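User: Here's a chain of 163 residues. Predict its fold as tokens.
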Amino acid sequence: MFQQLKNQLLSGQISFNQALPQALPELRGKIADEKLLWLASELQGYENAVAYYQTEDHGLPKYRIVAGGLRYMTPDGQITELKHPYAKRDHIFLSSPISWLEEFASYPGDQSLVEVPELTAFMGAGGGGVICQCQKSELRRIIATFRNEFIAILDKVGETSAP
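Assistant: Prediction complete.
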């Protein structure tokens, strides 16, 4: 099962959004709980992502930190400056589910706009939303890093559960 999942991922037959729900129940009890939580966070998004902006010891995966800027997208799609202390940062934690990053990376152009839902909720943006503007190469880097780590887990569990 793990080898098949790995092959389907590598060949592009399935996305992380399809592979993770298949893998998670099969991995339970075979990998550490912290790895299961990490995979679940990749699938659903990181709920505790505001911690990145509030403390140095946030415990979030460093590979999801991108060079970029926070902006505000109005309900009608206009991008404006965000007037908040967090917007002064030039590195942003992308908490979105990995499937969102896959989708945003597929859009045309070199720049990407990624929703930052925890900051929209935190700042109480009225109708619009907080986004991160970054290079699309940053999304591809996150996706590649996650793919490599996920496949390493599948390989390791596949080896130990092989007949």
